Amino acid sequence: MPFRVNTQLVRHYLLRRQIDWIDDLLSYEKVNRQGYFNPDTVERLKTMYRDERFRINQTFERDLLMIVLTIGIFLDLFSVPSR
Asked: How far is 44 from 75, CA to CA, in rounded Å?
């Protein structure tokens, strides 16, 4: 069974608490500089996730913002060059 992160954790804790390292990983400038994701799309995802009504059905939907966070951590941790 694959590991799944609770989206409520991401939405309520990571995004709403304005944690510096999370904000840095998801910043428009950093996402743009890394070149792996579209920074405009990431900004739209951040807006969606912060909305009280936003929900992800973990059975049928992918948590796209968690993918961006995971790749951002990987890039930083292993000093992978930007694209």
From this structure: 22
Reported residue count of the chain is 83
Inter-residue contact 66 to 5 (CB < 8 Å): yes
What pLDDT digit, counting tens, does each position of 48-59 carry?
888 878 888 778
d(CA 80, CA 55): 32
Amino acid at 76: D
* Dist CA 23 CA 64 (whole Å): 16
| pTM, entire model | 0.78
Domain range summary for the chain, segments of one domain joined by +:
7-77
The encoded tokens of residue 57 equal: 């059905």
Other Cβ atoms closer than 10 A to 34: 19
Residue 63: how many CB atoms within 10 A of its CB? 19
The C-alpha angle with vertex 73 and arms to 21 and 27, in degrees rounded to 5, equals 50
